[in-house]
Amino acid sequence: MADFYQNGIITTLHNIANRPVDDLEKELLSFSKQRPMGLILPSLFSELEGPALQNIVKELQKVPYLSQITIGLDRADESQYRYALNFFKALDQNHKVLWNDGPRLQALDKELQALGVAPRELGKGRNVWYCMGYKLATAEVESIALHDCDILTYDRGLLARLIYPVAHPRFNYEFCKGFYPRTANGKINGRVSRLLVTPLLRSFKTILGSRDYLEYMDSFRYPLAGEFSFRRDVLNDIRIPSDWGLEIGVLSEMYRNYSHNRLCQVDIADNYDHKHQALSIDDQTAGLSKMSIDITKALFRKLATQGVTFTSETIRSLKATYYRIGLDFIETYHNDALMNGLTLDIHQEEKAVEMFAQNIMNAGQHFLENPMEAPFVPSWNRVASAMPDVLERLKEAVELDNEQYS
């Protein structure tokens, strides 16, 4: 059971009383009359064949307060898209599947590419971006939650707790980030958050001194959680990375656009497990290796926009500081694991820290050598300025796909 301690500069909403999900849903149903609610599910087709998404759909069938569900489908051909439409028919709520690889959305994407206002990289960020555009185009919901489709421990209480802070009419939160413990099969997971992000933020503080942005980022208990919720007006101005820096990029955009008291984080699960990425020590283009590089580049870019000047010497100092702090954290997590009857492989943890340390150098060098890199997807406000009818065309393409292939 959680405590009530508030750490950092972001409000933390705890699970102190294990309130029954039925009570939460009853309230949310009443809130929905004033603030209609929706959900975004970014999915790979392969996830439709796994146990996680099948259970998620079963749980969502019991949710009474959602007005609209938007599913972004990646890596699917026509037969797989038809399969997906049939798969999601089990949902009672109004729902649409965005066929991101289909001819209609591909044609629209090609036009946006020609204007220089489309995502340049395939992946979750691109998928989420188009789903956000569809939410703006339909204008049917005011409060929106987003969560991944590979959650093996999913139950509908996760969604209720996630969307509650932005759905409550008397709360003023524009954005809410979910957090949870990460354990499975008797061990602690969440290596990138534990062994990269937190030690790296502490290392930036050591090198650069205390900065409001670093205090803000360090306030989030699980900054890489793929679960967050927001009000619809957030979607107009947000600019997000299309790579593995998505979660860090979203938090950075919230920092740029809103005061701290409009943001919060919420405890959404007693435990959380999903599919795990390989460490990929020998391949910087895959797994946790690529993820660590993208995340680190996202932090370099954000700090640079605040006037921080990075040099090769700064990056070497950052790497050395990180390495020492990262190793210290391994002992902390090891002791925590033992006290809770869990295991933690110190050798594998140290291999991860060594790889992350090298990737901090790689990310820093890439940042220095590519000063004109523009990794962010343009905001929908800018896209609509370049193509005024883009939202109407996006909505039409999605609905025609759903009608034609059903």
Automatic annotation (TrEMBL):
SUPFAM superfamilies cross-referenced by the UniProt entry: Nucleotide-diphospho-sugar transferases (SSF53448)
Keywords (A to Z) from UniProt: Glycosyltransferase, Transferase
Top-level taxonomic group: Bacteria
GO molecular function: glycosyltransferase activity
EC number per UniProt: 2.4.1.266
Protein name as catalogued: Glucosyl-3-phosphoglycerate synthase
Gene: gpgS
